[in-house]
MurR/RpiR family transcriptional regulator (Dactylosporangium maewongense), 304 residues
Amino acid sequence: MKVSRQSAEGGATSTAVKIRGLLPSLSPAEQRVGRIVADESATAAQLTITELSKRAETSETTVIRFCRAIGFSGYPELRLRLAAEAGRAQDDGAPGEAPGSDISQTDDLATVVKTIAFADARAVEDTAAQLDLEILQRVIDAVAAARRVDIYGVGASAFVARDFQMKLHRVGLVAYTWSDLHLALTSAALLDERDVAIGISHTGTTVDTIEAFGEAGRRGATTVALTNFPKSPITRIADLTLTTAARETTFRSGAMASRLAQLTVVDCVFVGVAQKTYAQTKAAVEKTREAVRSRRVRPERGPW
C-alpha cells in the first residue's frame, strides 16, 4: 500500500514549507499565489483576498482554489493559520527579518555567507519539522529487516545515495547504490519482496531514478522515495515517501540546496536502523574501525 501523507497530520510543518512542496502540482496562477504566501507569510496574513489576488495578478476564485489545493477550506482559514504561525515565531524569538532566499549579482560576500548559512540551517530545521515519524519508523523497520537495499540517485542525489550505502555497508547490511541506469535496472530486476529499493530525487521527476525505482517495485521490493515534492511523479510509484524541505536560490540549484536536507533524512533512517540492530551495528563498527586504524597518520608528540 502506497503511503505519502502530509506531515501536517502529525506535526509541526509550517504552511510555507507545505506550500513550497506542493508548488509544482499547482497551476501557474496558483503558483503565483503560493510564492507570495510562502515567501511573505506574515505579510500575507494581513492581506484581504482581494489584495492577495491583485498582488498575484489573478482572481479571487483562483485564491480560493489555491487554498483548497493545499488543504484549507478557504482563505479565512489560511489567514488564521498564517497569523498563528507568525505569532509563534515572534514568541520563539525568531528574527523579525530573515535573509532573503535569493542571492543577487551585487550582494557583498558577507551577505552571501549570511544567506547561505541561513538557507542551509533552515533546510535542516524545516526538513526535521515536517518529517512524518510514522512513515520514518516504517522505513527504518523495512531497511533493518531487508535482505538487501538498492539505492538509486543521479547527479547530486548520487552523492547522497553513495553516503547512505556506505553507512549501511559499514554496519554490516547488504546495500548497493547505482547511478548508471543500465546497472540500476539489472540490479532492480533481481529484487523481490524481501528487499528495499530507495529512490532519491530532489524534484521527484528524474527519469533514470524513476525507471529503476519502478522496476524494483514491479519485482515486489518495498519502495521508498526521498524527494522535496510530495506530489511528484516518483511518489506515485512509491510504497513509502519521505520528504525534504529545501529552498533554492539563483546560484544554488537542487544540486546544492537539497543535499543537506536529504542527508538529514538519510541520517535519521540510518540512526534508527542502527538502534534497531544495536548489537550487530556495534560489532560491525568496531571491526571496521580496527580495519582502517593503521591507515591513519599518528599525531607526532611534541617535546613536552
Observations:
- The first strand starts at residue 149 and ends at 152.
- The chain has 13 helices and five strands.
